[in-house]
TrEMBL record:
PANTHER family to which the protein is assigned, alphabetical: 3-OXO-5-ALPHA-STEROID 4-DEHYDROGENASE (PTHR10556), VERY-LONG-CHAIN ENOYL-COA REDUCTASE (PTHR10556:SF28)
InterPro entries xref list: 3-oxo-5_a-steroid_4-DH_C, SRD5A/TECR
GO MF entries: oxidoreductase activity, acting on the CH-CH group of donors
Membrane-related topology note: Multi-pass membrane protein
Protein's recorded name: 3-oxo-5-alpha-steroid 4-dehydrogenase-domain-containing protein
Keywords per UniProt: Lipid biosynthesis, Lipid metabolism, Membrane, Oxidoreductase, Transmembrane, Transmembrane helix
Origin superkingdom: Eukaryota
Amino acid sequence: MASSSTIQVKITAARKKTSLLRSLPLPLTLSFPPSPPPTVRDVKTAIQKAHPSFYTVRQKLSLPDTSKALPDDSAVLFDSAGDAELSVGDLGPQVQWRTVFLVEYAGPLLIHPLVYHLPKLFYGAEIEHSSLQKSVYAMVLLHFIKRELETLFVHRFSHSTMPLFNLFKNSAHYHLLSGVLLAYDVYRPAFSAPAVAGTWRANGTLLTAAWVVWVFAQLSNLSAHLTLRALRPAGTTTRAVPTGYGFSPPFALSTPNYFFELLAWAAVCALSGSPAAGLFFGVSAVQITLWAQKKHAAYKREFGDKYPRGRKVLVPGVF
């Protein structure tokens, strides 16, 4: 059995010290076999042993005078004396990604039934729901039920946690925009059966077309999610170039799941003509575009010449 070596790692605070970093600088002594050398993950584990409340996913390790986080699997680099220095930042309290998704999608699933089935409480009168209202109600519930099920059984996350603050930020987007505002606007008397009778909102062809587009978009979105799941073996962060429906022609997109998500909500907007639906769609489109650009750039950076040059970011043949 190979003998162990001992090295020194000096841990300094990357920024202003928090209560968890008051004891820094922290000298760590690590023992490890000559090969392989310790990784950033090993250092994080050692820090947690010294400070149990400073758990590994809360730590951000980087080289001194830099802000870029070092990957957990990267090896620690030592100088000629066999020593190393790393800076640690406190990412703050963390929460599971899966938990965040479950909570944010649960909002509309609770809010829409309340407003839809208790109109007297919100509008002061009973409402004879129109086909438009019934369809939007079904589309919203089915969409978020699908998202909850995907969170539980389909999605795999490259990072196990995110900052706790994101739970409130993300939930506000769904609970307020696609929850309270959308529900209150669409189920109000102005969209009821008597109010829309004889108008374009009661057009059966529009209703059918909206459902066709919505179902197509939802099934296509699910297909893209299943493709992404198949690329990442359970328990790993391995990535490969995604191919297949949505990623290859005729769509040829880096983020077809985002495109189909927006298409489904565009169907809701077109069907309802609701200002609240338009607001939610607009805000979502801005955020999704930023995510799509970031993911497209990451694919090109990671796979280089192996990544198909003709792929667009978000919209087939356009962008």
